[in-house]
Design a protein that fits this description.
By secondary structure, the chain is mainly beta. It has one domain: Sandwich (Immunoglobulin-like). It has one helix at 14-18, and strands at 2-4, 7-9, 40-44, 47-53, 62-67, 70-77, 96-103, 114-118, 121-127. It is elongated and about 85 Å long.
């Protein structure tokens, strides 16, 4: 279990610890010590879309939250085998915890954010509020 700015999560299991995915459950979670999730972010119509490849990650291994105008995406990619049961010849895949913090503009509706995971692609859809400019009357004194 590890703590973040938006609560704690038990994404890391005993099996993860056996596979050298270790986290200090007695300390605060440190974003700078965790690999950054790569994302694309773009506007289309009245929405901001954030897209990321998270191949091999289950929805239950992802946490997405908004706090103080920042979108947090964090998760863990688990090995499909135990290190102790194999003789590794080559190890290039990334396994373990990842995260990303993305500041959001002020004109988004954080109450209706949607997230979808399909075939290893995570898409977060954020509605943009339409803000009208207001004309200010100037009084002469």
């Amino acid at each position: 279990m590890y703590a973040t700015q938006f609560g704690s999560s038990a994404l890391v299991t005993e099996e993860d610890r056996d596979n050298n995915i270790s986290f200090d459950s007695n300390s605060s979670w440190m974003p700078e010590a965790v690999p950054q999730l790569t994302v694309d972010m773009y506007y289309r119509g009245d929405f901001i879309y954030i897209v990321s490849t998270v191949a091999g990650v289950q929805a239950s291994d992802l946490d997405i939250a908004v706090e103080s105008g920042v979108l947090f995406i964090k998760g863990v990619r688990r090995k499909p085998y135990k290190d102790s049961e194999v003789n590794t010849e080559l190890s290039e895949c990334f396994w373990g915890e990842f995260m990303r913090e993305l500041p959001l503009p002020d004109n988004v509706n954080v109450d209706t954010i949607e997230a979808n995971l399909n075939n290893g692609i995570l898409i977060v859809k954020i509605p943009v509020l339409k803000v009208k400019a207001k004309k200010i009357q100037i009084r002469v004194s």
